[in-house]
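R.M. (postdoc): so does anyone remember the format we settled on? I'll just put the structure tokens first.
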């Protein structure tokens, strides 16, 4: 079975099952499917897939509430980062300062930062990176007021973690006054490429994907659990990796730091 046929069958499976996910997050949930379907819509020139993405976005927006975790893999920092990416890539026409206003308010609450875990602080750092790489009018506030405090607490929390997470040095360099880095430079900073974890997200020669390939080859759709639908170790991740092989665009992997 060719790659295009596999993608067609994978998209059918994700449409049939994707609406039943109860996880809005990036790595294994709905926003990851949004990412796949916008990519696939652009590849096929079929607006049906964009329409399904917008349907999922409506579901996600309705489910974000005060108790939604900050966690990057499952929570709002990953979701917000994906929205910023989608706008920057032209998949969505929107002002991110508008659509992410409530998300900004929760994520950048300085009162809560001291009580967050290292993983949650790293998630805020990743989200801040995406917000500064876009067109937000909040760039200077994020860079000069919010991110330095986040980095300070990252360093404090990391004292009990060995080895030190490599992203901490990346963020520390961004807020360091002597670097005088431009916002354009933040996005293109080579260090960010070293933080991408695409090789741990998808491997086309892995046993997992061999099993998915065998299953989906049998029919246009098949029953799989919700974990297998997502990007990490799932069908959407395999679909995105195949799209990358076909069109060469791997920019989506920048949403997946170590």
């Amino acid at each position: 079975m060719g790659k295009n046929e596999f993608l067609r069958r994978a998209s059918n499976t994700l449409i049939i099952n994707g609406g039943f996910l109860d996880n809005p997050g990036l790595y294994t949930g709905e926003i990851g499917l949004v990412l796949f379907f916008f990519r696939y819509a652009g590849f096929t020139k079929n607006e049906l897939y964009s329409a399904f993405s917008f349907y999922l976005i409506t579901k996600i927006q309705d489910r974000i509430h005060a108790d939604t975790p900050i966690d990057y893999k499952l929570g709002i920092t990953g979701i917000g980062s994906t929205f910023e990416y989608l706008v920057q890539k032209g998949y969505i026409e929107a002002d991110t300062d508008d659509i992410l206003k409530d998300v900004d308010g929760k994520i950048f609450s300085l009162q809560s930062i001291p009580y967050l875990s290292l993983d949650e602080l790293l998630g805020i750092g990743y989200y801040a990176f995406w917000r500064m790489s876009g067109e937000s009018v909040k760039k200077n506030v994020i860079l000069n007021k919010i991110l330095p405090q986040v980095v300070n607490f990252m360093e404090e929390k990391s004292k009990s973690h060995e080895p030190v997470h490599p992203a901490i040095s990346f963020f520390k360099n961004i807020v360091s006054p002597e670097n005088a880095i431009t916002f354009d430079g933040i996005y293109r900073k080579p260090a960010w490429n070293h933080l991408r974890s695409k090789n741990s997200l998808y491997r086309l020669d892995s046993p997992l994907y061999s099993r998915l390939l065998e299953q989906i080859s049998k029919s246009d759709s098949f029953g799989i659990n919700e974990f297998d639908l997502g990007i990490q170790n799932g069908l959407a991740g395999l679909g995105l990796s195949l799209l990358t092989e076909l069109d060469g665009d791997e920019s989506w992997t920048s949403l997946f730091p170590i």
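R.M.: ...and that's the designed sequence above, right after the tokens. Also worth knowing: The chain has a mean pLDDT of 85. The longest helix spans residues 139-158.
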